[in-house]
Write a structure and sequence with these properties.
By secondary structure, this protein is mainly alpha-helical. It has 2 domains: 63 residues; 193 residues, Lysozyme (Orthogonal Bundle). Strands 1-2 form a two-stranded antiparallel ribbon.
């Protein structure tokens, strides 16, 4: 065989060996990736199954008749209310009323319509990323407390929005707690009827009622809504750092969402 042919064969074999080695290496890499993916699926399968069941349950709930869905929501609120009442005896009747009846029945006499309540719940849930079920208690409590203390419920909801973004467990570095950021150390006596300890201050119903009492006292003391808001935030000078303007702007947005006409302050 001529030397040129031998050299050609050697070069061909060398190139073939390189190509085969490259193919083997790539196949090994892809095989490793496939093994990792398979292992990940095996470990994640229980979680995926749980998520699939949750989606299935949500679809069934969405397709269920309105009456059945409302009954399920009311039962869930009743369970939550009973759990709170077990730890805070002072609010058991109030929580039972919210938990066992639809909002329209609870709010008879407060001037709220079911459409306004639903609009407020949707607005708060969407803007502040609050669970829709939780908004029912917040809005209902604001209307009931506002009716009892002759305060605008939208004002109470606006204060909650600015103070805590509707987080019932919010706590500041200076000791303010709950939805309305009440200074518990200063107003501890106001929580006595709701129980003792920090649990009372962090209970949504108790916090809204005590915060509303403080706000009402501030408004009466300063003889104006803007002055009362400045008092509520602890401003002693002529300015409140824009706090009152933020609260009143949020109240206007709440009124717009609910289709409620605000009276002049």
């Amino acid at each position: 065989m001529p030397a040129a042919a031998v050299a050609y064969c050697r070069q061909f074999l060398r190139i073939a060996h390189i190509r085969v080695s490259e193919v083997v290496r790539i196949c090994t890499v892809y095989l490793g990736i496939a093994v990792l993916v398979a292992a990940g699926v095996v470990f994640a399968l229980p979680g995926l199954r749980g998520q699939a069941l949750q989606v299935h349950a949500a679809l069934l709930s969405a397709l269920a008749p309105d009456a059945a869905r409302q009954e399920a929501n009311h039962a869930m609120l009743a369970d939550a209310a009973q759990a709170a009442a077990d730890t805070l005896p002072g609010v058991d009747n109030f929580l039972d009323a919210i938990g066992t009846q639809p909002p329209p029945a609870v709010l008879v006499g407060t001037g709220a319509s079911s459409g306004q309540i639903e609009a407020l719940r949707s607005y708060i849930s969407r803007k502040y990323r609050v669970a829709y079920d939780a908004t029912g208690v917040l809005v209902s409590t604001a209307y009931l407390v506002g009716h009892d203390l002759e305060l605008d419920p939208l004002l109470l909801l606006a204060v909650m929005a600015i103070e805590s973004s509707y987080n019932p467990f919010a706590e500041s570095t200076v000791g303010a707690q709950g939805l309305m950021q009440v200074m518990t150390s200063v107003h501890q006596d106001k929580f006595q009827s709701f129980g003792s300890g920090d649990g009372a201050a962090l209970n949504p119903v108790a916090n809204i009622r005590v915060g509303a009492q403080i706000l009402r006292d501030c408004i009466q003391r300063r003889r104006s809504l803007t002055g009362g808001l400045a008092c509520y935030v602890g401003a002693t000078g002529p300015g409140d750092g824009g706090y009152g303007a933020k609260v009143l702007a949020e109240r206007r947005r709440l009124a717009l969402a609910a289709g409620v006409a605000l009276a002049r302050d």
